[in-house]
Design brief:
132 residues, mainly alpha, Cytochrome Bc1 Complex, Chain D, domain 2, binds heme C
């Protein structure tokens, strides 16, 4: 009975956890980026503002998928796309371009395997053309 109960409970928890990108964010991202996305700069970047700018840069969408925190999260491609879309809308409303298109699971699947080895360098390269 106890075992049955625990199977039922873990199943319920699993479907609950899969139900929402907000819950996936809470489970897999807040440990470092904090519930409001503010992070702990400079060690952990804030997810408020810059991701919206990055999404508009050439190569930026790919970068957001390939950073280790995203690409290596224990989420499937559909769930990771949903978490990225959620945090862009939730934390980056002011910087996200109006013509922005949400991530799809196939876009995530395409870029995710190439986990960034040097995220800071990749990030600097994204912004470089726009520096004075
Ligand atoms: C263990 C701590 C940790 C966890 C957990 C984590 N991240 Fe991160 N994240 C970082 C760090 C550190 C960076 C800076 C790049 C690097 O060194 O990996 C970063 C960078 C990022 C960036 C790029 C931001 C920018 O402005 O360049 C995004 C987007 C991101 N993380 C999303 C996520 C998402 C989504 C999750 C949850 C699925 C997550 N992260 C989980 C630590 C974490």
């Amino acid at each position: 009975m106890a075992r049955l109960l625990s199977i039922v409970t873990s199943h319920t928890l699993a479907s609950w956890a899969n139900a929402s990108p907000q819950v996936d964010y809470a489970l897999h991202c807040t440990g470092c980026h904090l519930p409001d996305g503010s992070g702990l700069p400079p060690d952990v970047p804030s997810l408020r503002g810059d991701p919206g700018r990055i999404a508009a840069l050439p190569g930026g969408r790919e970068y957001l998928i390939r950073v280790p925190g995203s690409s290596q999260a224990p989420l499937d491609d559909t769930e990771l796309a949903a978490v990225l879309n959620w945090l862009l809308v939730e934390f980056n409303a002011e910087t996200l371009p109006s013509r922005w298109k949400p991530f799809t699971s196939s876009e995530v699947a395409k870029h995710r395997p190439r986990v960034l080895e040097d995220p800071a360098r990749a990030r600097a390269a994204l912004f470089k053309p726009y520096e004075e």
